[in-house]
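cron nightly-structures :: item 1 of 1
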Amino acid sequence: MAKFNLFSEESNKSPLARFWRKFKNNHAALVGLWLFIAFVILAATAPFLAPYGVNQQHSDALLIPPSWHDMGDVRFILGTDDLGRDVLSRLMNGATYTFGLSVIAALITTMIGVLVGTFAGISRGIRSSFLNHLLDITLSIPSLLLAIIIIAILGPGLMNTVWAIILALLPQFIHSVRNLIVEELSKDYITAFRLDGASNWHILSRGIFPNIYEHIVVIFTMALSTAILDISALGFLKLGAQPPTTEWGAILAENLGLIYLAPWTVGLPGVLLFLAVLSTNLVGDGLRQVLKERKAD
């Protein structure tokens, strides 16, 4: 009887509650989630919490190492660069550009990708064939290379970088959503909807999207991870954010010549990039694992 009650209690939980229970059992994914939340908070609050201005120079504190070093200064926790600018303030502000703009780019990609992918999934005939061939062509080009091509057309700059990344991520997102839609349309419950005379909108809103929204979240995390890497790579190649913008890739490019003299000016933004991508990938892997378990059940 007790077992039956436990089973009943579990079955009465909402799908979101069951999803969260399985997700939090994955400790790596949970660590990634807290890291991800920390980056979101940092990106939103960095301009207000940074101890110094991002371009404020301290002529008496050039290339000061982090405060835990013997030659460090408690005024500058992560040290200063060759112009006397506080590394901590610049890295905090850079989260707004690298992480914040990547989230915006991934969200815009998600909205457009879901709309176009849904249209591609339910289309038939010439329209479907044209979209499929167009997707096949664009998917043959790596996202970073496609972003570089777009930057070459639009010109370098931070906002052009965001649009380039959106356009570079869209083909893969549209392709993934289209495949999800096509897979769901082949299932028996869709046939039942059609026999009841349901419209395409009713089938999508009441049948398909409730079954694929978790997959879309997983695709979003993959797109976000790629966006972080691409926006930093373009900044490092000096095709994206331009100095003295505090985007992490631009900071790496600006301080690359100091790698032996002041390694903290290069290592710290590299560590932040690693953690940002790692947290996103851990969350995505956790979500994929939960979806795999649900499919097995």
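cron nightly-structures :: done
Residues 204 and 210 are 8 Å apart (CA to CA).
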